[in-house]
Design brief:
two-stranded antiparallel ribbon, disordered N terminus
Length: about 210
């Protein structure tokens, strides 16, 4: 009986170890890998359920709609956790310095990220962590609303302020930068499209929370 009991315990231990290891692997790859379909917000959250929970918490904390936050991140990094600005080219072909130290999902600058950590008390936040990055976007868009009056439901101007800074937006530093205003229009269009998509799947996403 003792040997049989030990055998059952051993089998259960092996099953637990295998299952736990598999979940850890899925968790790591799930957080770091780019979603298969980066153009459909329902498909993104269906694949990355933890991202939905993080986005929902950021929306509840800062008041910026999920689809606005996600559209900004989609534009900034295409959901690559280690995204960096492309290097400049010396003499047209030699890789040179990067234009800034922006990094991660939200392409946050080191200085702005430090301000976020200080103001929120989230000192352990990492730019390559999606949960932290989307909370940063919520924090930044909240500041844009409070300091210069940009609605959190206005993806176009929120993105311009995100790119140029609130002071730059006030000075209209984006004027004459056609490429930037066109990018902001893309962010605006995608956010509104994703907002409509999210209405169709948000109920199912909310119902799935109990699994985790």
């Amino acid at each position: 009986m003792i040997r049989l009991g030990l055998g059952i315990i051993d089998i259960r231990l092996k099953l637990f170890t295998t299952l736990f290891g598999g979940l850890c692997l899925l968790s790591v790859s799930g957080c770091a890998s780019v979603p298969e379909n980066v153009e459909d917000i329902c498909a993104i959250f269906d694949e990355k359920s933890r991202w939905y929970r993080a986005a929902k918490k950021s929306e509840e904390r800062w008041g910026t709609p999920i689809h606005v936050q996600m559209s900004i991140i989609r534009q900034e990094s295409s959901f690559r956790f280690n995204a960096k600005p492309p290097r400049k080219k010396l003499l047209g072909f030699i890789p040179w310095r990067r234009p800034s130290n922006a990094y991660g999902y939200a392409q946050a600058l080191e200085s702005t990220w430090q301000s976020y950590k200080t103001e929120t008390g989230h000192r352990g936040a990492d730019r390559d962590n999606f949960k932290h990055a989307i909370d940063f976007v919520g924090w930044y868009t909240d500041k844009s609303q409070k300091t210069v009056g940009i609605s959190k439901w206005d993806p176009y101007n929120q993105y311009l302020a995100y790119h140029e800074g609130q002071g730059g937006w006030q000075r209209k530093s984006y004027s004459g930068k056609r490429w930037l205003t066109e990018t902001a229009r893309k962010v605006d269009y995608r956010a509104r499209e994703w907002g409509a998509q999210l209405k169709r799947c948000e109920g199912d996403l909310d119902d799935g929370w109990w699994i985790f």
